[in-house]
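Onboarding guide, step 5: your first structure request.
Type a short instruction followed by the sequence, for example:

Predict the 3D structure of this protein.
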Amino acid sequence: MEKIFDVVVIGAGPAGLSAGLYAARAKMNVLVLEKSRTGGQIVTTEEVANYPGSIPEATGPSLVARMVEQCEEFGAEILKDSVLDIDLDSDIKIIKTNSGKNIKTKSVIIATGASPRKLDCPGESELTGKGISYCATCDADFFTDLEVYCIGGGDTALEEAMYLTKFARKVNVVHRRDEFRAAKSIVEKIKANDKINLIYDSVVEEIKGDGIVESLVLKNKKTGQLTEHLADEEDGTFGVFVFVGYIPQTELFKGKVELDERGYFLTDSDMKTNIEGVFAAGDVRQKSLRQVVTATADGAIAAVQAEKYIEHKFS
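The system replies with structure tokens like these:
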């Protein structure tokens, strides 16, 4: 008889692994699908200081390794394979994968995440997690009393710049235009803050450093002039926080599950989408805070709700 899973989790970041753990502990048949590496964005984080109960030695990879171990301890199957298509029209959902599998399941938890939009400049990939960050809430504390550069000019960038002033001695906001399009109330606060220096009409051309960020090259869009900003000699480094948007990994589900105008899943507080038996968890859903702790909470809720759905629908 062809196997039908109780739950298939798409994505093995913190939300997906949490969902897999809770579903497996509930004695359901669980498959977690991941197209690349497990862990999502957190595996690029060298230190995890704001996850409740984390020890000083905890890193993103070590935390993910423990999550994977827990999932497998309770019987969840983790498979490296990418999803090509998904049929959600029937009670039994069908997931078609790159390896040619047609996986059948009673419920689906989508935890495909959202990726920070990158600058795509030289040095970015090499120095991510070594001075370059995409999350002020996660990493601001590491730059206490240092100088930082905040890249971006939208509401999120300016809000994060204000947050960074609690830690950094100076925050340079780099914006590609000559005026901000963020809410006027936020712009007024930014301009009134003595810790914030505004750099207009500029984009990041290159980020340099040997193991850590040591300098930043900016290009003035109007004049074409290149300016290299060096770290203070006593500091030896500074932070570069990039806030130029996120890209939700939802392309596969467009037209099949309801999304908001930015491409994020719309769910209720129980992680339910508009499709019965389909749940979304973590950074991929519309929410106000994207952190490991909120992702794992989403995953746990989704798994518990999937169990209740299956009991009601298939018993």
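Each response can be followed by summary notes, for example: The helical segments are 14-25, 60-73, 124-127, 136-139, 155-164, 184-192, 292-314.
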